[in-house]
Design goal:
Length: about 180
Amino acid sequence: MKNKSRKETVLSGFFIALGLILPTVFHTFGGGSTFLPMHIPVLIAGFVLSLPFAIAVGAITPILSSLLTGMPPAFPVLPFMVFELAAYGAATSLLYKKFKLNVYISLICSMLVGRIISSIVVWVLATFFMAKLPSPIVFITGAIAQGIPGIIIQIVFIPAIVFALEKSNLIKREGIIV
């Protein structure tokens, strides 16, 4: 059990590092909010890691990124990104590992859950903290419309990566092998 926990800790650090590096590269070329690069390692972490580790990767990644790079801005973007990405990690891990849904259904449902959670947090921020944010419906519509290239990348590449990891026996639904 200790060995599994150690492996998941190391892999969590790897996914967090990817979540810091990919956005920096994409933002250098002006495609950060369009291609959603921070979402990719968090979603993959959900397929690879157990629930608590997947949630931690989702929550920690945007916080560290904000502290180290200023992306996302601390307010009002960081709070809803923390909840959105933590929801991605949680939903992906639960749907794929616990409920044994296929990769595509797990991924798409997780993406929907994350956006719903994000829109709820946007509503809370706008209602109770007077954040200058659009209504949740306008927010989620805009986020999806702007993020279509990133959503396509996620739907194409994340399942391919998960299948490759499974085929090479690096991961199984029950846990990490390596």
